[in-house]
Amino acid sequence: IGGGPVVVHCSDTVSRSGVYCSVSIGLEQCKAEGVVDVFQVTKAVRRSKPGAVTTLEQYTSIYDVIDMYLQMNSTYGNFSINKQ
């Protein structure tokens, strides 16, 4: 809201926060570049916050959320990718 920074926190400070940050960064990368590299995005989040995204379930949920977002928005036509 408003384009400013977002504060993210969960009960253990890393697990769900890491998933949220990976999804958010992944969607921004997709909008800017037309592609998303979930592995590299998650790797960068883990460099910043060790312990983030530690389970396969968390990792696959990042893919699932990004995929669902892209499918929903391509269906309704309100998502555009700026390819450069």
UniProtKB/TrEMBL annotation:
Molecular-function GO terms, alphabetical: protein tyrosine phosphatase activity
Tyrosine-protein phosphatase domain residues: 1-69
Domain of life: Eukaryota
InterPro entries: Prot-tyrosine_phosphatase-like, Protein-Tyr_Phosphatase, PTP_cat, Tyr_Pase_cat, Tyr_Pase_dom
Every Tyrosine specific protein phosphatases domain range: 1-60
Pfam family, one: Y_phosphatase
Name of the protein described by the UniProt record: Tyrosine specific protein phosphatases domain-containing protein
Species annotation: Amphimedon queenslandica
